[in-house]
Structures are given as structure tokens and as C-alpha cells.
Amino acid sequence: MAAQTPADELSKLSVADTNGTNGTKTATPAANGQKHDSDDDDDDEAAEGTAATTETGAAKKKKKRKPKKKKKAPTEQSDPPRVLISQLFPNNTYPKGEESDYIDDANRYRTTDEEKRHLDNLNSDFLSDYRQAAETHRQVRQWAQKTIKPGQTLTEIANGIEDSVRALVGHSGLEEGDAIVAGMGFPTGLSINHCAAHYTPNAGNKMVLQQDDVMKVDFGVHVKGRIVDSAFTMAFNPRYDPLLEAVKAATNAGIKEAGIDVRMGDIGGVIQEVMESYEIELNGQTYPIKSIRNLNGHTILPYSIHGTKSVPIVKTNDTTKMEEGDVFAIETFGSTGKGVVHEDGEVSHYAKNSDAPKVDLRLTSAKSLLKVINKNFGTLPFCRRYLDRLGQDKYLLGLNNLVSNGIVEAYPPLVDVKGSYTAQYEHTILIRPNKKEVISRGEDY
What we know:
Elements: E1 3-4, H1 7-10, H2 40-61, H3 85-88, E2 98-100, H4 114-121, H5 124-147, H6 154-169, H7 178-181, E3 182-192, E4 195-197, E5 214-223, E6 226-235, H8 241-257, H9 264-275, E7 279-282, E8 285-288, E9 290-291, E10 295-299, E11 310-312, E12 327-335, E13 342-343, E14 349-352, H10 364-376, E15 382-383, H11 384-389, H12 396-404, E16 408-411, E17 414-415, E18 422-431, E19 436-438
Antiparallel strand pairs: 1-10, 2-19, 3-5, 4-17, 5-6, 7-8, 9-12, 10-11, 10-12, 12-18, 13-17, 14-15, 14-16, 18-19
Helix pairs in contact: 5-6, 8-9, 10-12
């Protein structure tokens, strides 16, 4: 999920930088004999004898129930994805991401240092939660990349991704507090063409994906608040390939550069250099591909998608360093437009501020909605569709009141100039004590 660069940070840029069979009781006849005419006593005795013999026969011939065959555990994912990740990977042995050693002189020792390895082993629960979320993301997005086609509505696409995530982690999010245990880390962003980020359909949205669209798919998965943030871009016309290649290469360059004690401004410089070495020809005109300079990557904290550190995607003078234990979303955005985004359009993304002020809310609808947000999302981002899904209605007045009081943050869509095209790629990386792990890496990107 994209983070915006504060306006004052732009002033720091240099001129160069701004570019069974049920065993039934079977009674077997005790005798073949036919009934003879006789007195009642004989009949009674015969009846008693027959009953006794019948019970004995039933006991002798009662069939043993066959033990029920245990259903085999699934070994592969369904289509659409509905098999729990925990069933596919028992005992919490989820796949690792892409691991790499620290290769700079100051940190090379970490690879073999016993103390660092011990610290890393202490994080087993942390790593298990993150890897479960990452594997969920991989399987859902790979399914999405195969199935998303022009002609689908954005609502259909978003619901398909979100229903799959919830099914794979085993939390539907419909019971109070269930979405806080595991599920969506933030709403599915489906930003098209000049819209770079923070667009997801609200109720009634009838927008349809077109053959000539460039769509950014950005969604998060969390397990116990450990959020995996990863994004990719889909285009169905090969003319956009250079744009997608530029952004993917820039993201990978930023990931390669990242590590303990690396300065944020230096990572931004590497990203910008790679991004802006590409150009694209559209309708006979050549466009330079620019880094969107007021968007950036960010740290991720438990239950908080935007932490306190930002990773620029252009060269800056920011000397803040990456540190051991940090979790970063390295995301880059390229554009054929101005390379600057602004807020525009109907808001769909929201999140409660972690340092929300205590306000005496006078609006009853705002009070009741805040309780719903606290119990179901906490500080995790949500969208209007999520409130609709919980049965909330007529909540817009209360929601806007929470925003105006600084309790909830609204995230409007972020757009470049109309007619331009934007692309995004993103991965989550763990700055572990002895290794760097691109936790969300997959065979797709």
C-alpha cells in the first residue's frame, strides 16, 4: 500500500532529482417350521422360543462396522483458492522467502555469527506468521494473474482476491474480531492507468477492466498483525511492456541495495537511476519513464501498514538508516506522465490512526461506527465494502465525522495527469539479524 512523501520532503530534491453399512439387526428365522393349529400355551411357548432364538441369531450375525476411511489431506490448492494454507503446510513449516547474505564489509560477519543466528532463531513465531501470510499472498496473486481478464468488473476482481485470502487463512472476518486474527492486511487496490494507488471499488461501482488498461493490483495479507504488502501490474497490450519492465527492475534494484545501515536516500538514488534508464513509445511518441517522486516505500509495524520510516524512489538527502529487525515494503512506481501524483476521486480506503485523539463524539452514528472499527479492524486499513459486508448501512456521515476529528485517516486515490500510464511493483523484506529475506518473493515476480 503506497505511502505519500510529505510535501516538505520534495524541497530536499536537487534539480537532477526531480525527473457403512449400518449393521442392522437382521433377525434370522429361528425355525423354518410353519405354525400348527394348537392351544394358546403352545403358541406362547413357540413365540417366546422364536424371540429368544431371533435375538441370539441377531447377536451372532451382527456385522462389524467397517472403520471409516480418513479423508486424505489436500496436497494442492483449489481453483479458486479455498484450501487452508495450514493444511498444505502442516506443523507451521511454511516456505521461506528469498534469503540473501549481507555482503557489505560491515555486516558480512552476520551470516555466520552465532549470536546473530541465535537471535534469528528466537523469532520463530514471528517468521512463521510472516511466511504463512506470504504464502497466502503468493497463491492468491498467482491465481489472480491467471484468471483476471478484460471484461471483468473491478468489484468482481476485488471480491475474488479477498474471498480467497480469507479462505486460505481460515478467517472470514464476519464474526466480531475475526478479521483482526488474520485476513486482509488492507483492501485490494485496483488502480487503473493514470491512477497509481489507493483505488478500490465502493458499493455500486460498475467499472469494467478494458483490454488497453494498465492495472496495479496491490493487496495485503496479515496473520496476527504481521502484514505482507506486495503488488504487481497487469497489462494486456504488449506495448506497455517497457513500463512494467522498468518498474520491476527498479524494485529489484531497491531490494538488492537494502540492508542494515543502508541510507534511505541512497536506496532512492539507485531506484531512480534504474527506473529512468527506460523509455516507452506510445502512439508514435517516446516518453521517458519517471519515478513518481512523492510516493515511497515504508516500514511495516504490527497491525500498522505505514511505519515511521520511508524509502524514497528518487535520490534524496535522507540519511535515515535501515536497522536490524526492520520490516520494509520496497515499492516503486513509474509513470509516463509528470511523475507526481495528487489526490483525486471518491475515497474508498480508510484506517484508524494509531495515535487517534480522544474526542467527545457528539454524533451517535460516529460513536457506533468507531466501536465497529475498533472491534473488527483496529488500526488495519479497511474500505467501505468491508463495512457493507458487516451489515453496516447509512454510515457515511459518521465515517466523515471520524475523519474530520482526526480519529480515522482517509486515503483518496492518487493520480498523475490524465492520459498517462503508471505501474507498480512491491515486495516485503525482513531485515533479519543474519540474513535479508524477501518474504513475498515468488516465481511470478
